[in-house]
Amino acid sequence: MKVVAALTIALFAASVASANTTWSVGQEREVDEGYFFKLVKAHVGWRLWRIETETGVECRAVKSATGRPHPTPLGYTVNFSGGEPFFVIYYSRSSGLKHFWKGADIAGSEVSLRRAGEKFWSDETASTTYSDSEKLEVNIVTWEYPAVLVGRREVRGAFDMTGLAEMSAAVEACSRSD
After folding, report:
1. pLDDT exceeds cutoff 70 at 82
2. pLDDT band at 107, cuts 50/70/90?
3. pLDDT in tens, 30-65
4. What region does 82 belong to: left with phi over 0, alpha with psi -120 to 50, or beta?
5. Alpha helices per DSSP H over the chain
6. Nearest-10 Cα torsion for 130, 131, 136, 141
7. HEC states along 136-176?
């Protein structure tokens, strides 16, 4: 009887956890106290999120590597977790559209990439630009303690940037709407 009860509780907990990671377009949830995430759009692997907090509204488009699960809202911050590596587009009122790669939850990221057909890796910078439909391989190395090179974590993924232009425009429009 105890085994049946334990199994029932485990299945219920798994279904609740699963339900909390599945989002429908148009759905809004309070992910953490005062952090409201709304899935605005899903398009060719991209997810457009509208994040509302007491300080205002921010919009982010997120795309995970091919074959990886979509990152889910993290909660206590305007960020995401899981499905790494992933690419994020956001809008800054002072400097326009910006992006970053997420590969781990520790500091000191080094992002390298190579485009389809290239043999060698190059360093990604904040000014690196990408094209719609571009195929990329990304390698992200992070260090828990970068000053002494301890706690290395490496994550790699392939990306099809199809939909980049549309989602960039959607992030900007969403961000300017408030």
Report:
1. yes
2. low
3. 999 999 999 999 999 999 999 999 999 999 999 999
4. left
5. 2-21, 164-176
6. 10
7. EEEEEEEEEECCCCEEEEEEEEEEECCCHHHHHHHHHHHHH
Determine the residue type at 174. Answer: C
At residue 120, what is the residue type? F
**Contact in structure between 34 and 28 (CB atoms under 8 Å):** no
Please say whether the beta carbons of 171 and 48 come within 8 A: yes
For residue 125 the two structure tokens come to 């910078």
Contacts of residue 25, defined as CB under 8 A and 6 or more positions apart, other chains included, come to: 39, 40, 41, 42
pTM: 0.83
CA atoms within 13 A on the CB side of 12: 6
How distant, in Å, are the alpha carbons of 58, 100, 103 from that of 65?
A: 23, 14, 10
User: What letters, b where the CB count within 10 A reaches 16 and e where it falls short, cover 45-80?
Assistant: bbbbbbbbeeeeebbbbbbbbeebebbbbbeeebbb
pLDDT digits (tens, 9 = 90+) for 66-80: 999 999 998 777 789
